[in-house]
Every structure is written in structure tokens, then in C-alpha cells.
TrEMBL record:
Domain Berberine/berberine-like: 170-208
One family name in Pfam for this protein: BBE
InterPro entries: BBE, FAD-bd_PCMH_sub2
UniProt organism field: Pseudonocardia xinjiangensis
Protein name: Berberine/berberine-like domain-containing protein
Origin superkingdom: Bacteria
Length: 212
């Protein structure tokens, strides 16, 4: 769900739109069949769905390639019933007073939920949705940007899961890596860090310190 309050090129300028973004790693015929019901929900402003090589996958999100001042953070949702949908529309729909640039709901599941043969650092398996708020503006508006994102996430708190997606955390939320990854994953990551990066060179991130 994307706010139309941010400047956009035609034909999006001055409009409040919902953006559906997806990828399907299968045949073009099956992909067309799967998205056909979505095309019947509402008139399309832009329909850019097409068969594409993997090298063009970044065009699906079509994010800016130049630096943009913004603030973002997100939460996981353990469910998304009709009441949650109504609340989301209330918070960021066309009749709201939100100043958010983007409120993004991602449906997960599928391969995301399957534990791999070789363990990795994904700590959010089993939670079906990710909700992200993005506010855009200069540094002097930092507090307003943070308040806009907080209004969205706080409003959806009744459906919030107890784990966090590390990709969608603000820097000030990522200080406790052990809480983010969980004790078992964190201990394994710390052991790997001790082996391959004992001096903690790669620390400008949601840092996992090398095991003692």
C-alpha cells in the first residue's frame, strides 16, 4: 500500500494507489493463471508483469538508485484476519492522515517456512506476514518520520508476532542481536564469527560479536 502524498511521475501523481509486487519462478503460463484473480480486484494503473530474466529482478521493486533520506522499521504479524485488514486501511488508507511513503505487507510462507538442510540465520519462520513502514524526509524531520512509522506499527500491535525480521529493523532496534536471532541461532552465529572474523571487522550491521 503506497501513499500518493510523495511526488511521483505520471500516471501515479496525485493518486493514492495499492502496489502489488510479486515474483514467480515457474512458467509464464502458470504465472499468468496465478495473478489473474488479482487483476479482477480493481482497475490497474500500471501493469508491468512480464516474463523476465533473473538479472532484471530488481525492477520488480523499482526502488530509487540514488540516495534518499528515509526512516523505516517493521514488525512480523502472526495472523492477518479481517479485523487487521480493516485496521490497516484505517491507518494508511485513502481516508487516513498518514504521511508515510510506503506501508508494505508481505505474505511469506512456502519455501520461506521450510528449515534448510544447512541451518541459517532466519529467525522468523512460521510467522506468515511482514509489515514495513517507510517515511521519507530530511534529517530535521526525523522525529516526525519516526512518529509516522510508529503510528502504523503500534496500531497493528494486536496481531504482532514475538520475533523480528532483522532486515526491517531500525538501527536503534538492533542493538540486542541475541534477542533478535534467539539464543540458539545467536550462539551458532557467534561461533562462526569467532572462526572467520575473530577481530569483528564486519561489525557495521546488526552486529554479532565473536564468541569469547
Amino acid at each position: 500500500m503506497t501513499s500518493a502524498r510523495a511526488p511521483k511521475p505520471e500516471p501515479l501523481r496525485g493518486r493514492f494507489v495499492v502496489s502489488l509486487r510479486f515474483a514467480y519462478n515457474g512458467t509464464a503460463e502458470d504465472g499468468e493463471r496465478l495473478i489473474a484473480p488479482l487483476r479482477t480486484v480493481a482497475p490497474a494503473v500500471l501493469d508491468t508483469v512480464r516474463d523476465m530474466p533473473y538479472t532484471e529482478v530488481a525492477s520488480i521493486h523499482n526502488e530509487p538508485t540514488e540516495p534518499v533520506p528515509y526512516y523505516e522499521r517493521g514488525i512480523m504479524l502472526r495472523e492477518f484476519p479481517a479485523q487487521a485488514l480493516d485496521k490497516l486501511v484505517e491507518l494508511v488508507g485513502p481516508d487516513s492522515d498518514t504521511t508515510l511513503w510506503i506501508a508494505e505487507l508481505r505474505a511469506l510462507g512456502g519455501a520461506w517456512d521450510r528449515e534448510p538442510t544447512v541451518p541459517n540465520a532466519v529467525a522468523t519462520r512460521g510467522l506468515p506476514y511482514s509489515l514495513l513502514g517507510v517515511a521519507v524526509g530530511p534529517l530535521p524531520e526525523e522525529q516526525q518520520l519516526k512518529a509516522s512509522v510508529a503510528a502504523l506499527l503500534d496500531g497493528m500491535q494486536p496481531w504482532q508476532g514475538d520475533r523480528r525480521l532483522v532486515n526491517n529493523l531500525a538501527p536503534d532496534e538492533a542493538t540486542d542481536a541475541a534477542a533478535i536471532y534467539g539464543a540458539q541461532r545467536y550462539e551458532r552465529l557467534a561461533a562462526i564469527k569467532k572462526t572467520y572474523d575473530p577481530a569483528n571487522m564486519f561489525r557495521i550491521n546488526h552486529n554479532v560479536a565473536p564468541a569469547a
